[in-house]
Design a protein that fits this description.
The protein is α/β, with parallel strands linked by helices. It has one domain: Rossmann fold (3-Layer(aba) Sandwich), CATH 3.40.50.720. 45% of the residues lie in helices and 14% in strands. The protein is built from nine helices and seven strands. The chain has a seven-stranded parallel beta sheet, sandwiched between helices. Strand 2, helix 2 and strand 3 form a beta-alpha-beta unit. Helix 1 crosses helix 8 and helix 5 runs parallel beside helix 6. The longest helix has 29 residues.
Length: 244
């Protein structure tokens, strides 16, 4: 397994779930990790448990000014950015414990999901790429979903956001490929034991994936150099097979 000694990595949605698990693993591999999410108290708790150097930078990914400040603080503290992990995400199922057909989704609900899951990725990517371009290296890792390639009823906002994320990942890869920067998407490969599935009965939650399901694949993607794989979207298991 690759190590990340001294690497500078931003993880959005790092206060819990997949983001927290990846941040912890990055730190164990020697990376300097920037933890960002809205809940500063939870971020501080995560940072306190990390073995390596970290920076807590609370922000709402929907707000450009807040995103820009996270990137600026990262560059000021660590001198640059090697990997951006766009992990922050929400779903109406996680917010309300139920699916909603399109005719029942409010404008505010639609905007919340699309702005967190897609606009937030755009804002962080836009703010980060110039620094990666300047150093002619870097990796953008977008956390996608099987619903970025398939659709189910009752999840219109989430499906739309993840299909959009798949396209944005490919555009990022195309624009960055001659500048030493890779961009890829990673899908856990199934339902993960995070807040999105908190409504499930205990016996069903026991059968879904643990939050560390993407850690190995995320490390491999973060360890890539300018000649690494780019413009692809795979499950965590497929990435491990592809890169190891």
């Amino acid at each position: 397994m690759a190590t990340l000694d001294g690497e500078r990595i931003i993880v959005t949605g790092a206060s819990r779930g997949l983001g927290q698990s990846m941040a912890e693993r990055f730190s164990e591999e020697g990376a300097r990790v920037v933890l960002t999410a809205r809940d500063e108290e939870r971020l501080d708790a995560v940072a306190d448990g990390l073995p390596g150097e970290s920076l807590v930078a609370p922000a709402n990914v929907r707000h450009a000014d807040a995103v820009d400040r996270v990137v600026e603080r990262t560059v000021e503290e660590f001198g640059g950015i090697d990997t951006l992990v766009n992990n922050a995400g929400v779903s109406l199922l996680g917010m309300q414990d139920d699916r909603k057909e399109l005719t029942d989704v409010t404008e505010d609900e639609w905007d919340t999901v699309l702005e967190v899951n897609l606009k937030g990725v755009f804002l962080f990517t836009r703010a980060t790429l110039p620094h990666m371009y300047e150093q002619a290296s870097g990796n953008v890792v977008n956390v996608s979903s099987g619903l970025g390639r398939h659709a189910i009823g009752g999840a219109g906002a989430y499906v739309s956001s993840k299909w959009g994320l798949e396209g944005l990942t490919r555009v990022t890869a195309l624009e960055a490929e001659n500048r030493g920067v890779t961009a890829n998407a990673i899908d856990p490969g199934g339902r993960v034991d995070t807040d999105i599935w908190a409504h499930l009965p205990d016996e069903e939650r026991e059968q879904i994936l643990d939050p560390d399901v993407m850690d190995d694949a995320a490390v491999l993607l973060a360890a890539q150099g300018p000649d690494g794989v780019t413009g692809e979207s795979k499950t965590a298991e497929e990435w491990e097979q592809r890169l190891e």
